Amino acid sequence: MSTVGLGMPSVAKGLRTQAGPAVSETAPAAPTSGPLVDTYGRVARDLRVSLTDRCNLRCTYCMPAEGLDWMPSSAVLTTSELQRLIRIAVTLLGVREIRFTGGEPLLYARITELVAATAALEPRPEISLTTNALGLQRKAAALKAAGLDRVNVSLDTVNARNFHTLTRRDRLADVLQGLAAASEAGLTPVKVNAVLQPGINDLDAPELLQFCLDHGYELRFIEQMPLDAEHGWRRDRFVTAEQILASLARKFTLTPHSEHRGSAPAERFWVDGGPATVGIIASVTRPFCGDCDRTRLTADGQIRSCLFSHGETDLRALLRGDSCDQVADGAEGDAVLAQAWRAAMWRKLPGHGINDPGFLQPHRSMSAIGG
User: Fold this and answer.
1) Residue 13 falls within a domain, yes or no?
2) Could you read off the pLDDT of 46-67 as tens digits, one per residue?
3) Kind plus residue range of the DSSP H or E element containing 44
4) 51: left (phi > 0), else alpha (psi -120 to 50), else beta?
5) Is residue 1 part of a domain?
6) Is 341 among the domain residues?
7) What is the signed CA dihedral for 288, 50, 356, 25, rounded to 10 degrees?
8) How far apart are CA 69 and CA 83, in angstroms?
9) Which domain holds residue 361?
10) 256 pLDDT higher than 50
11) Deepest in the core among 149, 164, 234, 274, taking most CB within 10 A?
């Protein structure tokens, strides 16, 4: 592949990118300093860090009942490797928000240590966590003390039967206890992310919103995206933003929020005049790619500029010398890693292409990419 725009010969030796759009030999070179920018003028200041691909639920829209072939432990970045890359992102590349994801990030044994190291960085980034909350009751207070600012909890229904159907586990009570513990610990605003499935929980939206209103949680409905491991997503079998709004309108009066959303993925609506709001993340029917400010680091050290990327940039190879000379510790090596990251983001495409006739779902599923 071409490595035009990497800026340093040493990076060209270590960079491995999976199949993706070719980079023109005449394309402008990536910047050799400053933040993570792309050729469309977007600046990535929000880093999603996947800590593991493992999960203790088996949500039907994510993975099969038997689970997946997990990454071997040797392939997953160590805590020190994660700390180094997060430090580079914050101090050299202008990242201002770190979101720990998975899989289920609470399964990562040293997560509290990692949060504390991230909170000690200057400038200190905002630190959040996306979790299914099964282990949150035990860890919420410690995570808050370590420096975690807030949590997003995945919860698709408060109907116990439908929860079991969706997750293949009888763990609703644990999730509700985790939510309460997060609120008590001050991990606020506590946000709830929900995906609706036709014929399962698509009628549960009003009940879930009422639950969140009663407990002071901020609810976001997310259109299901084609990121399931079994590649079973169908355009005619997901619940759209319009359908979600119509379902909520059976019980609530929703009015569009007046604030400009910027790079925030959710369109917000006042609920019954406010002050509470509900959000809709319409990634499929109302794409917001033009304002995207995210970059992603997978648990095995790959940089992805988009959830739907078909190309990845292998920083683990640079860290470990898997296919080249290992980058040095210290400022010189950090500069090499930062420039590889800049080059990866420079090649970011204008959009995810879900609605294009030739769209192909990425090989990795959401659990392996990170939310």
Assistant:
1) yes
2) 999 999 989 888 887 777 777 6
3) strand 43-44
4) alpha
5) no
6) yes
7) 100
8) 26
9) 9-369
10) yes
11) 149
Whole-number pLDDT of residue 188? 97
Full-model pTM: 0.85
Q: Count the domains in the chain.
A: 1
**Six token digits for residue 106:** 């609470």
Q: Is the peptide bond before 31 cis (omega within 30 degrees of 0)?
A: no
Task: Count other C-beta atoms under 10 Å from residue 57's C-beta.
Answer: 18
DSSP state of 282: -
Q: What is the mean pLDDT of residues 85-114?
A: 97
Q: Does residue 2 lie within any of the structural domains? A: no
Query: Which residue has tokens 């689970």?
Result: 67
Q: What is the CATH number of the domain that holds 307?
A: 3.20.20.70
> Residue written as tokens 């979790």?
131
Residue 324 near residue 14 (C-beta atoms within 8 A): yes
**Least confident among 70-79, 138-147, 314-323:** 314-323
- Position 8 confidence tier, pLDDT thresholds 50, 70, 90: very low
